[in-house]
Amino acid sequence: MTKLAVFDFDSTLMDGETLEFFAEDIGIREKVKAITDKAMRGELDFFESLTERVSFLKGLSVSKVDEICHNLPLMCGAKEVVKGLQDKGYKVVCFSGGFRNATKYFAEKLGLDGEFANYLHSKDGVLTGLVGGEMMFSDSKGQMLERLQKLLGATKEDTLVVGDGANDLSMFKFASKKVAFCAKPILKENANIVIDEKDLSKILFYI
User: Fold this and answer.
1) Which listed residue (10, 158, 164, 168) is catalytic?
2) Is the pLDDT confidence value at 13 over 90?
3) For a tag on the chain, would you pick the N or C end, based on fewer CB atoms within 10 A?
């Protein structure tokens, strides 16, 4: 029987929000952060908030995007928790409402078994302000988790999910171990494991 662990990326495996690092580079961090915060609390539709924030990035070069993505700060304990779970027989996967420019790079760095994220559309090496992918909606992660469980033969009882925001909530009904990591209240209320310290290795105490 396959054991499955699914981690959110932004503010979970990575310490911060990728979109805010982009926004900081072009001088609109506070504008983007305000929208992100509302979306993560569940006060805004995730799809609408994502497309609005990405639209602000129009004109940013892909090379700058990749440079920022490859220098994002890992969360404390990220390497330890991935290795620790894999040592216990888990397949460890990342689901992100963010972007493959970051998740693909860090999946290799962390040795993840898989990663699913959105794509920033570009033309002639420059972002167009458009985005697409499998993680566009508030329930996308839950739907992908259900599909992945069927593919791998993983049960709810053998599934662990970890997130921090409202768009991680849809995963909870498919997992027996529901971790709210330094999370918004909406996620904590529905979790059965709550970790408020920025150290992912704490999760291993519950396995």
Assistant:
1) 10
2) yes
3) N
